[in-house]
Every structure is written in C-alpha cells, then in structure tokens.
Amino acid sequence: MLARDFYVFYKSDITLFLQLDMASSATISSVGAQAALVSKPRNRGISGLKASSSISFELGSSFLGKTGSLRASVTTRVAPKAKSVARILPEASYKVAVLGAAGGIGQPLGLLIKMSPLVSELRLYDIANVKGVAADLSHCNTPSQVMDFTGPAELASCLKGVDVVVIPAGVPRKPGMTRDDLFNINAGIVKSLIEAVADNCPEAFIHIISNPVNSTVPIAAEILKQKGVYNTKKLFGVSTLDVVRANTFVAQKKGLKLIDVDVPVVGGHAGITILPLLSKTRPSVTFTDEETEQLTKRIQNAGTEVVEAKAGAGSATLSMAYAAARFVESSLRALAGDPDVYECTYVQSELTELPFFASRVKIGKNGVESIISSDLEGITEYEANALEALKPELKASIEKGIEFAHKQQGAAASV
C-alpha cells in the first residue's frame, strides 16, 4: 500500500476513513468496504495524514466521514439527490481566521477546524495567549499551517486574503447574566473586529458567534455598510447550536437514531426568539402538547442549563465550538462547489417583516443562494403563536444593535 497515513474517525458503530494518496484521488467510504486497509481497534480517534494532489469525495460526506459526520447532525435533507462524486482541485484549499482563538470557544474550535482537509491555513488571533494555542495545534499532523497573531497591530496581517472569518471573541456568560448583559462589552469587540475585516478581507464569509448574536449581526451589517462593503449573502449569525441541541433533545426524547434527526430552528439566537419547528422534524414524529412545550423550553434555555451546571466556570464553549465547526465545514464545502449545503443561520432576510431572521438557507460559493420559506408553511398553532411572540423581542435586539452602530459612527464623526 502506497499511502503511509490515514485520517480515521470512529463514530458509534460506524467507522469511516479518509485515505489520502499522493498517486491517486482520495475517497470517503465505509470501512466495511475497505476493512483490509484499516487494522486499528474500534475506538475513537483521528490519526495520520498524507497529502494528495487532488481530493474526491461523495457529496454529503465531510472531513469526519459521511454518515457519521458532525455535519450530518445539522444538515437538512431538503432535496435528496442521487449519489454523485465531486472532485476538489488543489486550489480548493481555504484560509480560515478565528478571532478570539485563545478563548473557551476558540481553542476547541481551532482544533476542529485544524482537522479539515479543506483548510490550508488556520490563522489564530487574540489579544493574548494565542502563541501557545497555535504551537499546540501546529503539532497535529493535519494539512493546514497554523499561524498566530497577537493584538490589534497584527490583526490586519491575520485577515489578509482569508476566505472565512469566524468571530467567537468576547466575554462569556456567567450565572445570572443574560445575553443583554453581554452587550456593551461584546458589541464594542465585534465593531472593532468587523472594521478590520472590512478593510482587509471584505469578500470573506463572516461567521458571528459573539453574543448577543441577535444584536451583534446587525452591528456587523451596519459597520460593513459604513465601509461600503456589505454583502448580505456573506454575513452569518451562527445559530447552529440551537439545531444541534434540538436534534439531540428530540432524539433522546423519542428514542431516535441521532444521525437521522433534523429539526429546523428559526427566529433568533436567544431565549424565546429561538423557535424549534418540531412539527417539521425529520423523520416525521408526533409530539404531545406537553412534549412540545417541554422540548421547546429546554432548547430555548439550554445555554442557561450549561451556565448553571458550570457554576461560574464558563458557558457553553464545547458545544458551541462543535456547532461552529459544523458551520465552518458547510461554508468550506459550499466554497468548494458542493451544491447541497443547507444550514439554519441568522441572516438578513425577507422571510418575515424583521430585517434579520434565522431560518434554513442554501449556501453556495457566493454565500446565501436562497432562503427556504417552506419551513414556515403549515406550522402548528403553538409554533405560529410562538413565532408572533418572539418578534417584538427580536425586533428590539436588532434595533439595539443598529442604534449602537449608528452612535459609534456619530461619535467617530465628531472627533
């Protein structure tokens, strides 16, 4: 066998692998069909790598495998298509910047992104302590080069020429703290970072994680408008964690195989603005009124559940990193030409009367290709009432973000 190294990912009872061979294309497939190539025990782990001149993969697969991928837990099956194979040429390798890379979300997120064969450069930025994180991740034998950047003086260098910018920077929630309590600090952080993005990589996909997302995404939009580089199709609020939680809780409640469960989540990314559309769950499943209310409230309050469980030691950092990595992967696959990338995300939208709204969208090479409106058709009375109830709060959060951006612009103009 010519290949010396492999990616190996084991998930539940399914083992998948990615073989990268210098002399041929790589394919992702079930180890059942290639058992002779892998002689490792059935435990979880990732090991090895060999570079490839090109990569082939089945659409719907990922750097962590196909059926067992993390992506499968949040990607909808909107329009199943016949299996096809796409070839990614050598230039389909992307530069990803993580701003806030030394934090509780940034570190595990960096690790997950480092695992992707679609990433050529992983650029890590923070105001302190990022060099150690970069040194640590650089020892992982995966293709991407890890680079570190510390402080505002190095931010421009970090952002030059990147394809995807992920922003988890900011302070975390603590017990008793609402997302609104985070606003004054995190709003200023997002403003500064987005200004740098606008100046150095205006064509990049921008993923906003910093809370409160309901307000920070509108802030980012206004800053990009002020800079004259706002592209509505490339600014995303990462609400994937709400989908990940909905899928997990529904699968547990109904005894379903988690990999098959898909629950669209619409609205916003805080409290009652998070609306899981349980009636649209795939595979189709029925819920009692009591189950619907219990599940909806748990999904809406899941962040608080983690904050309280950590008792002052942090917020939902690991699950957020997991969800953000799924969204990064989806963006990279869209950039690489995968025609079937669907995610729920908080974007500028005309789906409702609100200027920003989280819903399922189709993502392509140029960003959002279409917003899927069908999820809001034929919803239950409970969901319809919840949708109307969330709108005033979401509207207020959006307006708060826009007002902040305008005040900052006015203050800058008066100096």
UniProtKB/TrEMBL annotation:
GO MF terms held by the record: L-malate dehydrogenase (NAD+) activity
Q: Where is the Lactate/malate dehydrogenase N-terminal domain?
A: 95-237
Using the record's annotation, list all stretches that form the Lactate/malate dehydrogenase C-terminal domain.
240-404
Q: What class of enzyme is it?
A: oxidoreductase
N-terminal signal peptide: none
- Source domain of life: Eukaryota
Name the CDD domains on file. MDH_glyoxysomal_mitochondrial
- Which InterPro entries does the record cross-reference, listed alphabetically? Lactate/malate_DH_C, Lactate/malate_DH_N, Lactate_DH/Glyco_Ohase_4_C, Malate_DH_type1, NAD(P)-bd_dom_sf
State any GO CC term.
cytoplasm
Q: Which SUPFAM superfamilies match?
A: LDH C-terminal domain-like, NAD(P)-binding Rossmann-fold domains
Query: Which keywords has UniProt assigned to this entry?
Result: NAD, Oxidoreductase, Tricarboxylic acid cycle
Per the record's keyword annotation, is Oxidoreductase included, yes or no? yes
Which reactions fall under this protein's catalytic activity? (S)-malate + NAD(+) = oxaloacetate + NADH + H(+)
Which EC number(s) does the record attach to this protein?
1.1.1.37
Q: Which GO terms describe its biological process?
A: tricarboxylic acid cycle
- Keyword S-adenosyl-L-methionine part of the UniProt annotation: no
Fill in the subunit field for this protein.
Homodimer.
Homology family: Belongs to the LDH/MDH superfamily. MDH type 1 family.
This protein's name = malate dehydrogenase
Name its species: Triticum aestivum
Q: Source organism lineage?
A: Eukaryota, Viridiplantae, Streptophyta, Embryophyta, Tracheophyta
